[in-house]
Design goal:
single chain; about 80 residues; alpha+beta; 3 helices; about 45% helix; about 15% strand; elongated
């Protein structure tokens, strides 16, 4: 249930099924019209998996900088 102050209440049975405890850090994001809740550990593991698929010879920072420079030059 969403409270008047925008707080989301997760029912006890769902908290129990997900192994959530008071004080756990959670990550929320929107996927289409859905609100997805996952533990911060799960979100971090997913990001590590994505980063592991990038070859060490590829610099995402350099690619981003090149894209930004090109966008600035196109303005």
């Amino acid at each position: 249930m969403l409270g008047q102050q925008g707080r989301l209440v997760i029912p006890a049975d769902i908290r129990s099924a997900l192994g959530l405890s008071p004080g756990d850090r959670l990550h929320l994001h929107v996927a289409g019209r859905r609100l997805v809740l996952e533990s911060s550990a799960d979100a971090a593991a997913e990001l590590r998996g994505l980063a592991a698929s990038v070859p060490a010879s590829r610099s995402l920072v350099d690619e981003l900088l090149a894209e930004r420079r090109q966008a600035a030059a196109d303005e």
